[in-house]
Amino acid sequence: MHTIKRDGTLVPFDATKIEKAIYTAFLKDADGVMRPGASEASTSIRDKVTAITALVVANLNRRSNDGTVHIEDIQDQVELALMRSGEHKVARDYVLYREKQAQQRLQQRQADQPESLQERDFSIRRANGDEIYLTRDMILKNLGSACQRWDWQGNADLVMKSLVKLLFDGISEDEFVQAKIMATRPLIETDPMYAYTAGFFLLEKIRAEAFCQNPSDVFIGGSDYDANNYPANYFQDYIRKGVAIERLDKRLLDFDLDKMAEAIVPSRDLHFQYQGLQILYDRYLIHENGIRLELPQALWMRVAMGLAVNEIDREKWAIAFYNVLSTFRFVSSTPTLFNAGTTHPQLSSCYLTTVPDDLDGIFEAVKENALLSKFSGGLGNDWTPVRAMGSWIKGTNGKSQGVVPFLKVVNDTAVAVNQCFAPDTLVHTQDGPQPISRIQKGDLVLGVSAPIVRWMPA
Fold first, then answer.
1. The model's pTM
2. pLDDT tens-digit profile of 107-151?
3. Fewer CB atoms < 10 Å away: N or C end of the chain?
4. Domain locations along the chain
5. Residue 241: left (phi > 0), alpha (psi -120 to 50), or beta?
6. Fold held by 350-419
């Protein structure tokens, strides 16, 4: 678990700091004066502090979302734990002390900032170093758009309440988008529709990359941004660029690209929930040097064109395939989504092979696994023919070590040749979200089929 500081940065969660704060609250009043009769050596105080700290940590573990908890939430739990433990006077002084500290921080910020800075809410730093200024009304307008979906209306003020805890002056554009997502994700537990709100914010980031815009131009409605439309010629230019960088099949240029672009329904991008869109971003959308060129509807149309490339009336069938895919009536397997319409249009998945009982055959099977993993997935090996441990080896007059040592080689090969996850794909662990490249065998991670599982690479 990680703690979100007031400036939005993440630091490892440290229960000893909570214990120290509670211990200080028992020893000193709201003004920092030692309480009469209080002693640092008091065993009874230390026992109370230990018990209350354990209660706070247990509550935070139950409440934390994505392995993170804000510093203000921690202090709220300390107040609650003190009250539940019957330490009403200590709790009262702790509340008063927090309020005094908050006032001091506010006064310090006002003293450190020029007058003009106090007239607006905060600044956002662009990649080129320039700053833009956002008011609360501008942010609330953006949040309000994200909190509307079909006949559902979310609470933008509730998102704003969480968001302000994560904002700080000079926050970068990417950090601002991520802060909006982090502020929304805890609300998904109370209303699943907020998953569409978080997805809306991630879509802003993807559109900014694909349209070569600043993220701030997207979320403040600048440039030619329209949530229900793509810029003119976006799709045609994307296909041409994809072919030019040798990522897309040049046969896609034979399609009537204007007709294909006209058939795209950009508003269907808004039908993605956050988790689904994050998976597309991490694994499927075509990119160049980490910058996504492809939007969700462009992905569906690229796949549809790849499937229809050999049809006589290819435009007709591509549009038909697109409408099925983009409305989620059918979704192809991973290799099809990865490869359809690309320079390596391999669409199949799930392979079963039998490993022979000799070294040449065993390592040929390992090589085949690697080649299949490069452009596909879903591998199964039948090791039945390979002799068991202790079996006689005629060539060396020795004994076999069995299949286990070879399985380790196969496992390492599967990890090395893995197209499914980018190295920085986040996985939820007991220590909060971590890049998959840092996850070690045996680490506890959040699973889909079970709440908590141990990471065991295939």
1. 0.63
2. 776 666 544 333 446 788 887 778 888 888 888 888 888 898 888
3. C
4. 2-112, 127-219, 234-339, 350-419, 421-458
5. alpha
6. 3.30.1620
